[in-house]
């Protein structure tokens, strides 16, 4: 009976070795319902499949397929993602095996699960988890380009298998230096492909952010054109209404009617108020934002000298100050005290520098900053948090810089751009 158990363990060595690594790589994935039952059944299924064959290449194929099914049934992912998870796990297992062979140089008479192999495996798993595993899953999925990743993984897996076969069948007999050269090269390939997954994930994330920012920029451009037309139309209507009211006042004798006309005139005057900063783009932007502030009981004050802002493209200026004021409006809307719903916009020049500052009252001074920018406080980060990034990207186009800070319940965004 002892030999049978030992035989079973030896036969299932690959599966027993792989299962913890698979679970490690899938730690950040979204679990399916009744996960504990699925886990127990999956382990039994994998061990059963491993016991069907003694040795040979077919054994590894069956075990790999069984663990792919195991991964798919446990986690809410696609079959491709399951194969990807297994491929990464296999490469990690091979790193442990190769490193053990190089460091300890076993003679073949040592037990499969020696202390040395266990220690090496633990060290490798800890390093791989810290450097690779934590950075791969996103929102419970492997959000990657599976075509590219699977292609690179398959190439490396093929290379690893060839080198392993060569090392085990040609050089393993006398454990010559060539055997360890093959193992070392094998090991380097595995480490490289794992790190490539992390690096590619970073590039993919950066590309997604750039695509999102480009979409935002295009929307800002369309929005600017629409709002420019809207403001011109509103100004024309207000101008005509003012003329009509002035004419009607000549026939208004009753006190109540006069009061009514005065209120309407005051309202129209507020919509017809034209800011003259020296920059037509800034005038349109501030007028439009002022309308939003008036509707929400926010006092928007502005001291701006826009005469030297012509070198900034209209869409970039709209992105910079438009996003800045929008962020300030969102923040001030959460303030309960009506007296503190104030936004201050200042634009001025100092020598060869153009300075823009947006300030607003802010109640949450415990805001967390990352890379000089506050993290979004919104529950859904997708599509959010790009406002300040868009501002910074637009400012950097003109070799400028921006600074964000909170002091005495005042959120301050300062932008400095050199005037060419």
Automatic annotation (TrEMBL):
Keyword RNA-binding included in the entry's annotation: no
Any one Pfam family match given in the protein's UniProt record, by short name: HATPase_c_5
Keyword Amino-acid biosynthesis in annotation: no
Gene Ontology MF: a single term: identical protein binding
Domain of life: Bacteria
Residue ranges crossing the lipid bilayer per the database entry: 12-29, 36-53, 82-100, 112-132, 144-166, 178-198
Gene3D superfamilies registered for this protein in UniProt: Histidine kinase-like ATPase, C-terminal domain (3.30.565.10)
Family matches, as SUPFAM superfamilies: ATPase domain of HSP90 chaperone/DNA topoisomerase II/histidine kinase
Key words, A-Z: Membrane, Transmembrane, Transmembrane helix
Record-linked CDD domains: HATPase_AgrC-ComD-like
Domain Sensor histidine kinase NatK-like C-terminal, residue spans: 313-418
Protein name, UniProt field: GHKL domain-containing protein
Species name: Faecalicatena orotica
């Amino acid at each position: 009976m002892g030999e049978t158990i030992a035989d079973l363990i030896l036969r299932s060595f690959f599966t027993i070795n792989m299962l913890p690594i698979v679970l490690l790589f899938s730690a950040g994935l979204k679990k399916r319902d009744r996960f504990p039952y699925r886990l127990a059944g999956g382990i039994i299924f994998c061990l059963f499949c491993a016991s069907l064959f003694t040795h040979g290449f077919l054994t590894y194929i069956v075990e790999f397929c069984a663990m792919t099914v195991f991964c798919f049934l446990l986690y809410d992912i696609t079959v491709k993602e399951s194969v990807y998870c297994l491929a990464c796990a296999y490469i990690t297992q091979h790193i442990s095996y190769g490193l053990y062979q190089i460091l300890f140089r076993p003679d073949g008479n040592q037990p499969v699960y020696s202390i040395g192999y266990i220690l090496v495996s633990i060290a490798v798993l800890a390093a791989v988890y810290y450097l690779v595993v934590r950075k791969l899953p996103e929102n419970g999925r492997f959000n990657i380009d599976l075509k590219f990743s699977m292609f690179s993984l398959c190439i490396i897996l093929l290379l690893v298998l060839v080198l392993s076969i060569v090392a085990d069948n040609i050089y393993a007999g006398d454990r010559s230096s060539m055997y360890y050269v093959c193992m070392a090269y094998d090991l380097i390939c595995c480490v490289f492909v794992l790190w490539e997954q992390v690096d590619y994930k970073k590039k993919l994330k950066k590309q997604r952010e750039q695509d999102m920012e480009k979409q935002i920029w295009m929307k800002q451009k369309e929005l600017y054109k629409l709002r420019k037309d809207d403001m011109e139309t509103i100004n024309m209507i207000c101008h005509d209404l003012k003329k009509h009211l002035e004419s009607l006042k000549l026939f208004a004798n009753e006190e109540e009617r006069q009061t009514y006309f005065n209120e309407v005139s005051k309202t129209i005057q507020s919509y017809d108020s034209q800011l003259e900063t020296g920059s037509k783009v800034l005038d349109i932007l501030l007028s439009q934002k002022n309308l939003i502030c008036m509707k929400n009981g926010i006092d928007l004050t502005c001291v701006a000298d826009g005469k030297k802002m012509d070198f900034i493209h209209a869409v970039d200026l709209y992105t910079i100050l438009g996003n800045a004021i929008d962020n300030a409006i969102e923040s001030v809307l959460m303030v309960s005290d009506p007296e503190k719903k104030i936004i201050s916009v200042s634009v001025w020049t100092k020598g060869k520098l153009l300075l823009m500052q947006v300030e607003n009252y802010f109640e949450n001074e415990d805001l967390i900053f990352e890379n000089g920018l506050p993290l979004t406080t919104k529950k859904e980060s997708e599509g959010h948090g790009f406002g300040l990034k868009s501002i910074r990207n637009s400012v950097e186009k003109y070799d400028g810089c921006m600074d964000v800070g909170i002091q005495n319940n005042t959120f301050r965004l300062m932008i400095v751009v050199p005037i060419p």
